[in-house]
Structure formats: structure tokens, C-alpha cells
Amino acid sequence: MSEHTPNALQDKLTQAKQEVAKVIIGQEAVIDKALIAILTGGHALIEGVPGVAKTLLVRTLASVLSVESNRIQFTPDLMPADITGTNIFNMKTQEFTLVKGPVFTTFLLADEINRAPAKTQSALLQAMQERCITVDREQMHLDPSFTVFATQNPIEHEGTYALPQAQQDRFMLKILMDYPEQEDELTLAKSMLGEASPEKVLAGDVIQPVLGPGELAQAKAALEAVTISEDLVRYMVEIVRRTRSHESVLVGAGPRATQAMLLTSRAAAALNGRDYVSPDDVKQLASAVLNHRLMLRPEYEIEGLTIDEVLQQLLSTIPVPR
Hints:
By secondary structure, this protein is α/β, with parallel strands linked by helices. It contains 14 helices and 11 strands.
């Protein structure tokens, strides 16, 4: 990217979305949110049933943005060293050699993160927060664009370790990945009969990289040109603060949620080719930013109230800046 402008960034992002859509069919909103997480330097928690292309999404994004990707399948016996790596003694050289773990990459898919015990989850969450790890008291830095896409299965809870609220707060966005629409699923089914199946498209020469090596950092820099009015900043702060006083909410969102709203709304504006943030950018991302950060009171959960319904109530009572 030669220009650090929202319009130049939009052109690149539009191309990226078109390339990803060749593989990931019927998930436009999911692709947008994944790109927003990448651009803002955050991490995303992806929730969806098996078979909706969560793994394929991360692999495709890595291919389109010219970065490396790895995957970790979280299991109850997974240890922190399985993520970070460990020093192995080399009999030939009589020295310890670091065998790097899968965390040494740019995009990391943490598949079913809630299947690993808290100690292993914490090892990954530390890497997310600090973008560095410690192996045998030696600190090593990760890729500056290191991004974690952690998945959770919303159906099966047997044998899982639920992420504590404080750990969920480390994720900038929660992306809900649902089944595709009927027409999209029909298109996907037909593609499996020929050479245009998603896996074959990704493995072949059909996907064209949109960014060259090192250009992802330039794309992030373009967000600095997107402005946010003071009234809109106050609007975001008010939304987050209202979550703490709502009668049905046991645990509201913290200051990290406000920061996430600011950053993601700028990325959403750039995605739409604007150099300013609008109230619609904030409202469209409110659920993705806040859903996993709130905890409802048990009596309201029993009544069937959802967090999204609470957020809709909040947004309807807060004056929107002009």
C-alpha cells in the first residue's frame, strides 16, 4: 500500500473480501468482523457449530494477506509448552535448542479453546495480551500482527472449561458464525461436485494475495486517518457505562470495551471508505464488542432474556449524536 488513506485501505479491503469470498461462501458479515479484528490488532472469539468453515476462514485470510497461520486443537491434556514451545537438549552440540511452538506465527486458530484447562488457556491469553512468551526465563517476542482466532462450540459443554469473564475480556470481538443462507448453501453444495470446492480453490492458484509481505502494518497505519468526533466518543463511553447499571446485568463492560469500540468503529469506517466514524458504525458493532463482556443476573436468564436484547434496550435509550 503506497498511500495511508481510508480510500486506499478500502480498495485493498474490498479486494481482500472478494478473494476470501471465493472460499468462504455466504459469510460476508463474518469476513468483515475478522478483517476489523486484524486491522485493530485485536483478537476474535468465534462461536459456531462444527462445519461452518471457521478453520477455513483463518487459512484463507492468511493466504489473502500473505502471512503465516497455524492451528492448535485444544484438548484436556494440552500443556502450555505445547503452545509456546520448549528447549530440547541436543546431544550432538551439547546445548539446549528451542523448538518453537505453534504460537510463533501471525494468525493462530485456537480451535475449541474451552476444551483445555485454565493453565493452558492462560498461556495463550498471556501471549495475546503481551505478544511475547517466556520459555525457561527467556522472553521472546511474537509477530507484531499476531492475531488469535479462538473458537468455541456453543452446543457441547461436557468436558469443557468455560473461559472466565476476565479472560473473555481480552478478546476484542465475539464473532457469531451461523449456518449459510439456503442459496449460499446450494452454491456451496454445487461447488463440491467440481473443481471449485472451497478446499480446492484455496489449494490452487485461484486465490490472489492482496497484500505483500509487511504491508499489513501499513494497512493498520491507515486507520490513523479516520477521525472520531468528541460527541461520538462520549456516546461510546455512555453505552459502556450504561451496561454497568442496567438492572438485568450482573457484570458490565469495563474500560477495555470502550477502547475496543473506538478501534473497531474506525476500522468499520475504513472498510466503508470513510475517513470519519458514524453512529451506525458503533451500533452495528455494539453486540460483537459487548456480548461476551456482559453477564446477566440468573433470574433474568431464567426468564429467557438475552444479552443482545439488553443491548438493544440500552441503545434505544441513549441519544444518538448528530
